[in-house]
Amino acid sequence: MEDIKAEISLEELADLPEDTRLLVDVRDEVSMSYGTIPGAVRIPDLMEQAERNALPKDRRLILFCMHGTQSLPLAEALRNLGYQAYNLKNGYGAWLLKNLTPADRSAEIENALRRVRRFHEKLMSPFTRAVKEYHLLQPGDRVAVCISGGKDSMLMAKLFQELQRHRKFPFELKFLVMDPGYNELNRVIIETNASALGIPITVFKTAVFDIVDRIPRSPCYLCARMRRGHLYRQAKEMGCNKIALGHHYDDVIETILMGMLWSGQFQTMMPKVHSQNFEGMELIRPMSLIREDDIKAWRDYHGLHFIQCACHFTDTCSSCREDGAPVSKRMETKQLIRKLHETNPDVEANLYNTARCVNLEKILGYRQNGVEYSFLDHY
Fold first, then answer.
1. Domains of the chain as residue ranges with CATH
2. Which of 19, 143, 188, 338 has the fewest beta carbons under 10 Å from its own?
3. HEC states along the chain?
4. What span, in angstroms and rounded, lies between the C-alpha atoms of 101 and 94?
5. Which of 21, 29, 8, 25 is nearest to 90 (CA)?
6. Positive or negative CA dihedral for 134, 140, 144, 150?
7. CA distances (Å), 242 to each of 172, 272, 334, in order?
8. What is the pTM of this model?
9. Please, what is the angle between helix 151-165 and helix 292-301, to 10°?
10. What are the distances in angstroms from CA 199 to CA 130, 284, 297, 301, 358?
11. What are the pLDDT tens digits along the chain (379 aa)?
12. Would you say the C-alpha torsion 72, 73, 76, 77 has a positive or negative sign?
């Protein structure tokens, strides 16, 4: 292939011998952890290293982000510095679409949950334990399993199916997908993965993304609130009394630390919550004892590829930060916990246990049912 343009297609990439190219994912570390092209690397401070001639000039550097919007100008900048740099046309999204597996793999995946020891111990067992310990299911429940399209909610759906097959009492499942304004790629990925995993989804549309896209700063909180409201409403219309979300153990401890550091309050994601706006509805989180690394191991074992976040911000690659800086407080907190883990391997367990072991005799005050209490009330 002649070095005459700064962009190549997947077909042209396949024609390049592996020892002549280097795939470079320019997205941030967290985004890359959700999935990337096999063999790709992330190079921190990419342009700084390029200016110091620290990148290989004897290999073609194939840059990509989610949709190819951020990586294209970077490839052009590298070419101006004398590198053989190219942008992968349409980015990781194009590769993902081409490498999805539409065939039904449900039997294989279900068998692994039962027979692969790690998955049974790290996924199925803590899922079942959370259901029992927190009384998340009752006879006759009709649960709307809410699927966003990511690894967490897709796994939750499979674990619910397994639990239902071995149930000790009757309950019903509805697998609910809200389309808040997905682009075509994300919609296809969700539907293809659901088919491959044997998950019979029901999809309904809303205009959430169009609304929050007009908010200039920090739209994520409003987006989450609006999406949850739509899920409650749709689930209730379908006759469900509960919605299930795929928040995991790491989400729980990140929420604890985020509240302390950024909001000046101590709180966490509860395993179950009564809806304040939809009478008789309850939200449950049966994944709250499952570690994110174990979910990733399950995903990678089966070679599955899911979307990260399908909002307009990731569609335009706003998460592709050249300097590697976190783009949200949750990402920043995730990185902080990872750093603390290097010197204290028990940091995650300690954070989780703080929500279990609150000593009311050793705190200045607390709030219950909207009423403020002080330690002086019982001093």
1. 7-99 (3.40.250.10), 106-310 (3.40.50.620), 329-378 (no CATH)
2. 19
3. CCCCCCEECHHHHHCCCHHHEEEEECCCHHHHHCCCCCCCECCCCHHHHHHCCCCCCCCEEEEECCCCCCHHHHHHHHHHCCCCEEEECCHHHHHHHHHCCCCCCHHHHHHHHHHCHHHHHHHHHHHHHHHHHCCCCCCCCEEEEECCCCHHHHHHHHHHHHHHHCCCCCCEEEEEEEECCCCHHHHHHHHHHHHHHCCCEEEEECCHHHHHCCCCCCCHHHHHHHHHHHHHHHHHHCCCCEEECCCCHHHHHHHHHHHHHHHCCCCCCCCEEECCCCCCCEEECCCCCCCHHHHHHHHHHCCCCCCCCCCHHHHCCCCCCCCCCCCCHHHHHHHHHHHHHCCCCCHHHHHHHHCCCCCHHHCCEEEECCEEEEHHHHC
4. 14
5. 8
6. positive
7. 10, 10, 29
8. 0.85
9. 80
10. 22, 19, 20, 19, 39
11. 444 468 999 999 999 999 999 999 999 877 787 788 999 999 999 999 999 999 999 999 999 998 898 899 999 999 999 999 999 999 998 898 888 877 899 999 999 999 999 999 999 999 999 999 999 999 999 999 999 989 999 999 999 999 999 888 899 999 999 988 887 888 888 999 999 999 999 999 998 887 877 776 666 777 888 889 999 999 999 999 999 999 999 999 999 999 999 989 999 999 999 999 999 999 999 999 999 999 999 999 998 888 766 555 444 444 444 344 445 788 889 889 999 999 999 999 999 999 999 988 899 999 988 899 999 998 8
12. negative
- Quickly tell me which residue has 């499942």 as its tokens: 173
For residue 225, the one-letter residue type is: R
- Cβ of 175: how many Cβ atoms within 10 Å? 22
Structural tokens at position 18: 């592996």
What is the token pair recorded at 341? 């883990």
